[in-house]
User: Fold this.
Amino acid sequence: MDKILVTGGLGFIGSHTVVELQNEGYEVVIIDDLSNSTENVLDGITAITGKQPLFEKLDLKDRARVASFFEKHNDIKGVIHFAASKAVGESVQEPLLYYENNISTLVYILKELKKLPSAAFIFSSSCTVYGQADELPITENAPVKQAESPYGNTKQIGEEIISDTCKVTPNIKAIALRYFNPVGSHKSAKIGELPIGVPQNLVPFITQTAIGIRQELSVFGDDYPTPDGTCIRDYIHVVDLAKAHVVALNRLLQNKNKANYETFNLGTGKGSSVLEVVQAFEKVSGEKLNYKIVGRREGDIISAYADTTKANDELGWKTELTLDDAMRSAWKWEQVVRKG
Assistant:
């Protein structure tokens, strides 16, 4: 089978995608600098799939090492590019770090792909490119709004760089996948979301609160114009999300793409409020969660959920797992991690 490079392949979404690629028979090579993950994740991937992927610890900002990596692996047929810094708040404090890490690394990879006879490129993008959309659900035709953070801006700029490259480099075909909110973990509880430090995302904060690592969960605002006053997001199970990457990659490798650069929303098509996520967790775990309503958080949009029609019709992909499934697997993972 074809050799696929997964950058950031030991991270949350990356590791689940490596599992799905190996389940499909692909030969996987992982690059990760271990800045937000650990090498132990390899053991989890191997335990699930029965096969250990190749791994190279490499900082993609080191252009010379990136070039030598591609010289060594000149038979790569596709790249799924996850490697990036992703904390919105940190990006506001450290914009240059984010622009260097998220933009320069993308450029270095594309420069190497230009040298190959052909290459499929899947970009890890985000629904943050839409900001507070004018209409819900959000389609791929929704206007890209001015970014609320340097992190969001790196996703917009990244998409533009890829689009511009594909216009003049016919041997590169690319798809940008705009994720909504990935949650949950693999049902085996051998891999999952393991944030370093204080979690930036809702679900690991919920599970860490329930297990006693965090004192309480802050719910930022209950006065939004939504049914229960809390913000609404589209929470997609990470396994469904990972499978979408394999489907998108197959589309490019089988020349089924309709343009050299395409974009797809990846979500469930259903919005859930913060309090609905809390209630789903309490239901599946049997735990009462300690949470407190506090003031609104700067930069939070009111509501965002996907129109998934394009991904459903064009990719033949749709989500299969529910919010309850995601919360159940996230809680199982949290318990396994703490026992370890």
About this structure: The chain has a mean pLDDT of 96.
